[in-house]
Batch of 2 targets.
Target 1
Amino acid sequence: MRHAACSASIALALAVVAFAGAPITRANENRGTGPAANPLAAAKKVIIDTDPGTDDALAILLALNSPELDVRALTVVPGNVTAQQGLENALKLASLTNRCDIPVAGGAQHPLFQKLITAELWHGANGLANVELPASKCKADPRFGPDLIIQMIHDSPHEITLVPVGPLTNIALALLKDPSIVPLVKEVVIMGGSISGGNVNAAAEANIYNDPEAAEIVFHAGWRLTMVGLDVGDKTLYDQAHLDQLSKTHGPENDFAVKVLTFLIGQEAKYGAGGGSPMYDPLAVGTAIDPTIVSKQAMHVDVESRGEFTRGETVANRRNAVERNVLHGDRYVIEGLDHVEPNVQVCTGVNADKFLQLLNSRLAGK
Ligand code: BDR
Ligand code: CA
């Protein structure tokens, strides 16, 4: 069942049934004494939901080295790699950054209604550019990722920004299990979607394509949602000059990032247009760090789940209006326009230079 065509309501109902048994565990917050455990009051509390993943790894390093953010948890979703490999990678990244105080929790094992599609072609056999990091000193948090998300939102109402940079399965599961989180979330900043074509195929971006029903649930939850899509990510090309700059400094994270970025630039030269590698997931984190890096436009966005060529496409209504067709005899007549409410702040522009310098500056010497 690679591309099951389900309506959102069926998807929602089935998902509720399928996952109703998942436990919610309420445990003490696992805050430690790492660098961000001493957050400035102003630091933004974020939960990164990730399928690590090369660019996910860079996004996590960026977040953990940015004082503007207080990373409260990493939750892992299958996507670029399997759930198991993703959890192992997330734990290795927490260990690399000496942040075992941050809960790292596994979550869903597969998308809501289709088979998992993994992307070792783009991310390397281990998802981390084939770079072998040392075994992790950190242990997985026993809580189910969506439950951890729910718990943390209730523990810090109106303070948590969710930054999902993989398929939206875990976020949808959290919403289905506890819709009361919607008004309690400060903001959701996703990497995913596109308003001008896809990377999986002509229409769909990978994170949405890999779980369109989950995306539909997340896009229509009614919370403040910023979409950092493929088309703006494509403007943030990390090139050889950026790599040369970062290669001048050293440290475990810096050196790991250089290896990952070397791999990514190579992949882009092999399969893409060359000229550098798009920093998709890091840009979502960059947007959480500094929202002025991007420009946005409010749009009504639906997720296509039934189109033969367009399943997983984010269909954006730039005018937030649809024509009202009224039946007159044997034909319809357009009688006016109906407003459709914007549900997404769509990123339409990015200051790529500023962002790429931010990324390098935060990784340098770490
Ligand atoms: C997205 O898909 C994944 O391969 C990347 O990690 C990113 O989140 C880009 O389409
Ligand atoms: Ca990702």
Note: DSSP finds 13 helices and 13 strands in the chain.
Target 2
Amino acid sequence: MNRSFRNLTTRQAVGCLTVGTVFVALWTFAAAGFLPKWIYYAGYDVVLTAWWLRSAMQLWAKLPTRNARGKFVFWTYAAIFLAAMPMTDWLLPDAGATRTERFFVKSLLVLAAGIAITLIYSLLYKNKPKMRKKIVAGNWKMNTLPAEGVELAKGVVAGRSEVCSCVNFIVCPPFTHLSEVAAALKGSDIELGAQNCAAEAKGAYTGEVAASMIAALGCKYVILGHSERRQYYGETSETLNKKMAQAYANGLTPIYCVGENLAEREAGKHFDVVKAQIEEVVYNLTAEQFKNLVIAYEPVWAIGTGKTATADQAQEIHAHIRKVLTAKFGAVAEDCPILYGGSCKPSNAAEIFAKQDVDGGLIGGAALKAEDFLAIGKGFSK
Ligand code: PGA
């Protein structure tokens, strides 16, 4: 699914070309009347169906939750059926009904069948674990000049097709080059985020950058409560509550960071620390806001230190975070992506991402090299 034509071996490329040539020849002969006409029409169907299938599969990979996929199944089915409506007369034997009546009854049948198909889908997928958005977000921190940032973003765009389209990549450059990076990302599916936003909407707050400003530059996400901001800039739950409100008011999805420091981990307090960080901020969200939230668990002792939490340590605390979220928001907490951050790199990403409650990573150092950042995305098995 993530294979682009650029990745084909010479043998595969020759194979594709041969099949393509035969196909085009058959089609041309049929169009010219040397071969039966049905070959010509079948040709159309093959091309259009292949194109349709490819697009549908791409979209499918992007819809990670059971709910979203259920809707997708229903609507694609309904779309095919509606498109084929003129050919569905066999559904209703002609009993003197008008065209409108027939259309109405057929639409009801489409609806009923659509609901049945969606129900079957839901039953089939009922117990399939881990259906959440997969995210790899790059936190560039205070690194790169604008031109370097653009270069880095272009590098990520260039290599993107080699990674499963099911992975959602986000880059979070410094404020100063958000708009240039946004331009470099244009046309790709890589999204833009900022590393912080102000607690107020606007006004006399010298040096601050409002959520509305970053949203206007094309940001979809904003990292809030990163440990470096808590530690060096005195961010507290109180300010973070205001920042979260600003983010939501401007249509941004917060990537809310939690995590304990070394002393807290050694004292066995890490479960309580992250619980408090969630209770004091995330618990204040409405159910609607909560649906648009990403959590990043970043143990402070692992950030930029080269020390990574083991995959089991990550799983243990991610599961705990999900439990804390479930206690307040119920079953929707199953859909909330929880990312791991802290010295995540290509060599350890796969093992960590394979864990049940780990849905990707917030990447610092390794996000500064396009190659490494993309390689981390490959840590997701399809
Ligand atoms: P790191 O940073 O990957 O360089 O450890 C992660 C982060 O702080 O977001």
Note: The chain has a mean pLDDT of 89.
